[in-house]
Amino acid sequence: MITCYSNSEVWQLLGRETIGLIRWSTAHKVETPHCAFETIELLREGKRWQRIVLHTPKAICLRSAPLNPYTTRGSIRKHFIRIRKDYELSGLTWPTASY
Length: 99
What we know:
This protein is α+β, with helices and mostly antiparallel strands. The chain has helices spanning 7-14, 84-90, and strands at residues 36-44, 47-55, 60-66.
């Protein structure tokens, strides 16, 4: 079982100088011309979830994540694109790496 504590509870127990917090930061860039994002918050089994809907000219792609009760972030359970065919159906292009 995993127990989550708020920042203030952790700092009270361990001290503010002994633990640091790392905020997630994006390491990528998403470009979606002719597309729109929609955010829907919902409750599932008493827990807050967030569904992001990506509207493309050809299809609708979904991403779902339960939200952490102490932050505004969640752990993604379903991604927009899961297999190569999803790119073709969505009208998006398969990414290529460039360094």
